[in-house]
Amino acid sequence: MLKVRLSAIVIAVLAVIFVGGENFALAQGQATTTDKVDPPVKSGPYRAVKDIAKPQKWDSADQKVELLYLFWYGCPTCQMIDEMVSEMGATLPPGIRLTKLPAVFDVNNEWGVHAKLFWALENLGLEKDLHTKVFLAVQGAPGGGHGPLQLLSIDSQKTFAKANKVNVKDFEATLNSPLVENQLRKTASYLEAVDLGSVPSFIVNGKYIVSIEGRRPITDFINEAARLAQKELDEAAKAPAAKAPEAKAPSTKVPETQTPAAPAPSPAPNPAQ
Question: How many CA atoms lie within 13 A of 10 on its CB side?
Answer without folding.
Answer: 18
